Each structure stands twice: as C-alpha cells, then as structure tokens.
Amino acid sequence: MRVDYGRSYWTPPMPPKLAFDLESEQIEKLGLASMVAVSDHDNIKAPLLLRSVLGERQSPIGVEWTVPYGVQAFHLGVHNLPAGTASEWMQILASYTEHPSDRQLKEILAALDAIPGVLVIFNHPIWDLYRVGEETHLHMVDEFLRENRTWIHAIELNGLRNWQENREAVRLAERWNMVLISGGDRHGVEPNANINLTNAGCFDEFVNEIRDEKMSRVLFMPQYAQPWKHRILRSAIDAVRHYPQFPLGSQNWDERVYHPDANGICQPLCALWPDGNAPRAMRWGIAGLQLMGSGVFSGGLRIAWSEPHERRLALEELDA
C-alpha cells in the first residue's frame, strides 16, 4: 500500500484529561490557581470531551484552525467559542479550510471578533511550517496582518519554538502594535514552557484583559532554558514511547498514528499491520530514536546543542 501522507495523521500520546491535568499541575505548583485551554488541530473534540464528560466546565472550547492563505497556511487559535454554537462554528471554519476565499475569511474573522468572549490568536507566526521559504513566508505574514489585523487579538509566543523565532515574534508584535500571549504545541508529555499570569477569575475576564485592556504577562518556565533541539528530540521520543498506564488506544505509538485503509477509512496503524506488529525496519528505526534519548547519548547531545548565546540575546532584548 502506498503511503498517503495527505490523509495520514497522528495524535499526541496524552489523552485530553491527562493533558489538562499536566498543565494544571505545573501552574498549581507555583501556588497559583490554574485556567487551562486545550485545543487540537481543526477539531473541538478534546474541549467538548473535557466539558461534557470529564466535568471541566470552565475549560474553554477552542481550536487551532488551519487557514490557507495563498501558497502558505497559517494557524489561528480560536478560543472560548460559545458552547451553544461551537459545533456550528467548527463547520464554518472547516468549510473555509477546505474551500478558502479572502472575502469569506474576513467575514468569519469579523463575526468571531463580534462575539465579546472569543479570543483569536496568530499562532507561531514566524514558523515557516509549509516551507515556502523564509522571505516569502515573512512577506505573507505581513500581508495577512495588513488585511486581517483588525480581528486578530494577539501574537503567540510559542513554548515549543526556539529563541530566535520568539524574538522575531516579539518584533512582529511591536511592528503591528499587538499583544503577546503564551501558547505552545505540546506534542509529548512535557508541560508547555510558558504560561500567562493573570488576576482574572474566569476565562471571559482573561479574554477581556487581552482584547480590551491590551494587558498580558508571559512567564517562561525553566524547561524553556533547555536546548531547543534536545526538547524537540525528547518530544519525538515521547511520541513513540509505550505508556501502559494510559487508556486503551493511547498506549502504543501505532495506536496513535492513523492511515486510510483499503476502503479509504482512516484506521490506527496497529489495525493495518498484517500480523499486528510494525514492520521490522520501522521497529529498528524507533529503537534507534529511543537510544538517542538515553543515558550518555542524551547528555552528549544536550551539551552539543547548548544555546547560551541565544538565551543571552533573548534576555537582553526583554530587558531592553
């Protein structure tokens, strides 16, 4: 069977409740009350599950929305959708992703902005995720903001992106007079490397701080000081690790990676292997990746990937 990269996808190892608890515990260890927003790419299943089944009624409904734009696509965090219309909004957003148009994008963003409690964030804006080239990408970022800045409330400082990208995000926010906010792409089992500090008592009040008061305080956590490449490696290892303590369907990596079957229906890889096991070459490749994260290999890579210069530059710019 030929690999269909366009329709294949994977899910992080931690199911929504465990991810929610991980982020909450990191904040509460600081002696602070926590508010956690959990979102997925282009669906709202996780926040709906947290609210309706797992009892986290204060967790906002949000999504990381893929927004095609010319030869590029950007990711917008759309948070705190009204519970009564969240599913309808998801249909609208998915329709745009499938059939984009500039006019429709403006209409959608304006309608979202008209809902007082909704927060729209430009996620990891400097990351050329679709590899169109740095110059082209940055030009399109400015073009996108020139056309849609009115309805976008903040620029994300991403806890899983590197020092240089986040410094560029700070400059982008300054250039467009926009608020900076914490966020991240936590695909492993590490809690996000930055958080927002707020006196808000609920998520609606937090949205008001960002949208109306233009006030945001971002705290970077100690793990952000670790070498970025080493954190990415660890995240990759987390993605393929076996977790016997997790719920069924989340324990092994091939339960979390999906591919279309012969009828075009996406199934976990474990259901597609002829004998129920991954091919030998794939098992050896994963074993090699895991070896890089163990003992002396991990320590050596951490030293080789040390980033004191990047950290110093970032701190100097923040002090300025």
Briefly say what this structure is:
This protein has 320 residues and is of the alpha+beta class. Helices cover 41% and strands 14% of the residues.
Write the layout of secondary structure elements.
Blueprint: E1 9-10, H1 16-28, H2 45-52, E2 63-69, E3 72-79, H3 86-98, H4 102-113, E4 119-122, H5 134-148, E5 154-158, H6 163-175, E6 179-183, E7 194-197, H7 203-211, E8 217-220, H8 228-240, E9 257-260, E10 266-268, H9 280-292, H10 295-304, H11 308-319
Parallel strand pairs: 4-5, 5-6
Antiparallel strand pairs: 1-9, 2-3, 3-4, 7-8, 9-10
Structure description:
By secondary structure, this protein is of the alpha+beta class. It folds into two domains: 213 residues, TIM Barrel; 90 residues, no CATH class. Helix content is 41%, strand content 14%. The protein has eleven helices and ten strands. Strands 2-3-4-5-6 form a five-stranded mixed sheet. Helix 8 runs antiparallel to helix 9. The longest helix has 15 residues. The radius of gyration is 20 Å and the shape is globular.
